[in-house]
Amino acid sequence: QVQLVESGGGPVQAGGSLRLSCVYTGYTYSGTPFMGWFRQVPGKDREGVAAIDGAGITKYAESVKGRFTISKDNAKNTLYLQMDNLKLEDTATYYCALDPYGYDVAEWLIILPGPMAYWGQGTPVTVSS
């Protein structure tokens, strides 16, 4: 079974940067997985932040576009989220997720958590002024 472990979260000042990492293991499916980053705060639904498909094509939520960059290193089974110019509203627990199905990012109008099959435990990010 696939397991994912996030790291890199912590406290940061508004306007600062963080890079999150997610290492996945136990992936025995063919091809390259569809992966994404999601975030959640208490009392609110989990929301999609960024996604990357097997071809390396990316998609971002409008709220983070131009500030966040999703990338991956397939050889290391690692997913990254570079977060720049952080804002107070970026405070949340960030989760990486994986789905074995070969989705294309172009199929996704909005990045939703429902289709994702495997999840990490999350890493908290706290942005302060």
Q: Provide mean pLDDT, rounded.
A: 96
Total helices: the number is 0
Helix-and-strand structural type: mainly beta
Report, as a whole number of angstroms, the end-to-end distance.
41 Å
- Give unreliable regions as ranges: none
- How does the major sheet shape up? 7 strands, mixed
| Quantity of strands, as a count | 11
From the alpha-carbon coordinates, what is the Rg to the nearest angstrom?
A: 14 Å
Q: Percent of residues in beta strands?
A: over 45%
Shape estimate: globular
Fraction in helix: under 10%
Produce a short descriptive summary:
The protein is an all-beta fold and 129 residues long.
Please explain how this structure is put together:
Helices cover 0% and strands 47% of the residues. It is built from no helices and eleven strands. It has strands spanning 3-7, 10-13, 18-25, 34-40, 47-52, 58-60, 68-73, 78-83, 92-99, 118-119, 123-128. Strands 2, 4, 5, 6, 9, 10 and 11 form a seven-stranded mixed beta sheet that branches. The protein has a four-stranded antiparallel beta sheet with strand order 1-3-8-7, with no helix packed on it. It starts with a strand and ends with a strand.
